[in-house]
User: Fold these one by one.
Assistant:
Number 1:
Amino acid sequence: MRDWADLHGEVFVVTGPVFKSELPTMGPSGVSVPAYYYKVVVDLRPPGFEGIGFILPNGSANQSIGRHAVSIDSVEAFTGIDFFPVVADSVEEEIEGDILAEHWGL
């Protein structure tokens, strides 16, 4: 993410757990342990807008992050979260629908 921020000047990053029903818990306080995490990254600097998402299994990170790259639409479907509800539909479609792998160096 830092490399992309350096490359593009700035990016917006949203990260969080994916909570599904009947999560396993750990410890005496019963903290829920999600099976997955998501990450959504958006570059809103001209000349165009680009977005990329990731659905990452909770565990050891022994693979390239590019292997987990998906569209933001896919992350929204998986999590049930609309990440950009106030963004104009035309911009939302541009950043959420497809991944421009070259933009992200993948």
Number 2:
Amino acid sequence: MRAKIAVIGGGITGLVAAYRLLQKDYQVEIFEKSESLGGLLGSFKVNGVNLEKAYHHIFKTDKEIIALIKELGLLKKLKWYESKTALYYDKVMYPFGEAIDLLKFKPLNLIDKLRLGLVKIYLEKENNWQKFENVLAYEWMKNWCGPKAYKVVWEPLLRGKFGEKYKEISMAWMWARIHTRGNSSENGKEYLGYLEGGWQQIIDELERKILKLGGKIETRNEILETRKLEAEYDKIISTAPLKSVDYLGAMTVVFSSKQNLSPYYWHNVNDLDSPFLAVIQHTNLMGNKNYGGKNIYYLGAYLPQNHHYFKDSDKKIYQDFFDYLKKIFPEFKEKEIEEKFVFRFKYAQHIVTTNYKKQIPRDKLNEKIIHANFAQIYPEDRGINYAVKEGQRAAEKI
């Protein structure tokens, strides 16, 4: 008799795990608490087109997701685009994507710029991330980049990402962030991948294949206690948050407008007074032809799970976010917005402290439950590629 496997969570990790197990002739049932599949890769409609609730792109080093896209017959839709990045600091937006941009960056002197550039090159080339595991990111970056460069560039990133926990973050996390992005560059320019028509196509195709192979999918069913499943199923793959790890939540404000506010795709907002960490002009990466000529924007923030924004009304959030957006782009006109949305995610970012590896549970062969949560992605930060990798790893453990 074929072994029965329960998968808790219908995000991409759970879907990939289920798909791989069904390919090996296991019986599989997925339990998803929300009404739709996708998790952090979930989508909604803008101008009739699928768009992710949280911004997503991939790097050229993301081999697992690229291989899956090919396997699902979607490779022709994967397009690569040059990414243009800017940094907002002290009321000025600076281009910040290429070496020449760093040389022109006025807030730093020449020595600071050289140190910043050399550190970036070093971390891109260094493959031994283990040496950074027990090193604090803020101390290492301040020491090697210099106090001024750290204060202007890296401290706002760490504080914007991790809030009050920023002094606890491991340098291994920072290494992975810089190393991964650096190795997605060609001739000094960063190229990012996006699936024409949206990432929802991967979710839809995995769902179709899972059902075709005889798998079962049950939505609107939150599994709070696994005891009943343990009695009925031979193994359980759980993509639920880990009890041993601390998480931050996240929020995105997404809106469409005919206004074109910037020539850049990604804008780091290095101002601690800002309610959001980044402005992403989504359509500056792949164009706006699929969105009826409208420009699509994300305002993204990482927040403690008890932050008042998780309880505040959408109206209050729009007011705070759009008021600050006007400071960055004085020409921004709220009345030009055609559609706007707020999305909240309670578990969006694991807090990668020193000695983080000890917080990740180690699955034993004789245990019924195998954990496959994005918090187990280490030292790399969570992303689509590593979610696919985690799903495949979990399936291989069955």
Number 3:
Amino acid sequence: MGCCSNSSSGNTAVDTREVVRLGYSKIAQTGTLTSVTAPTGGGCCGNAGNLSADDLATKIGYSAEEIKNLPEGANMGLSCGNPTAIAQLQPGQTVLDLGSGGGFDCFLAGPKVGAHGRVIGVDMTPDMLTKARKNVAHYRQSTGLDNVEFRLGEIEHLPVADASVDVVISNCVINLSPDKPQVWREISRVLKAGGRVAASDMALLKPLPANVGLLVEAMVGCIAGAVLVSDYEAMVTAAGLKNVSIRTKPEYVAALSQFKDPLYVKIAEGLPAGTSIADYITSIDVTASKRCCG
């Protein structure tokens, strides 16, 4: 789905969640980030500057062919990676997408799991669910499949049964959560024994300078909520998952920097001389699995 919110350091978890919900409602209604993020820019929300949603998607690993076949409006430039590419989906699997937005990754996952598989998208924003559910008709017509559904819910409290999912995917959403450890505990809960998670997210390579950290926190929730890569790995492990792998992906930050995303320009202005945003912020691919026994 992606990440886009304005927040302040005094917000509680409930306040942060409501700010995110409001921001994504506006995105769903307008189909664009401009009205939500201006004048601060798209940031990790993508679709910034002269970079279109489709252009950004191709730069972070989606093929032009799969984007072309998606329902109109499913890709809103909210991705920071391609979790379906690293999920190694197989026919017959049940897949859960956290923060599914307009259904972008769900509609890509559906044909991979086939008629005997199932894809469940969960999103806490009713307007996003409305958009995704409207897109289902196009998906059914173009693929001949009826294997994608969307549920209202928060990723900290998933509306999914214990041990019912083969693969969990997520695209630049977990960083938005005010309680990320709880999200990872929920992922562990819903996965079957031996199940896997493949998520794209944002993280820090090293702490941002204090002045920039305050600026980011005031401007955009996803980078403000990003944690160090080492802390991220510890969080996933603490949830009981194993085989944890975190791979940094500089392409996303490079694309937004190259196309002069207003937020990234502002951050760069506050960094020490001789450093760049890519020295501090990165998108990541996260994979892990649940123990098969016990």
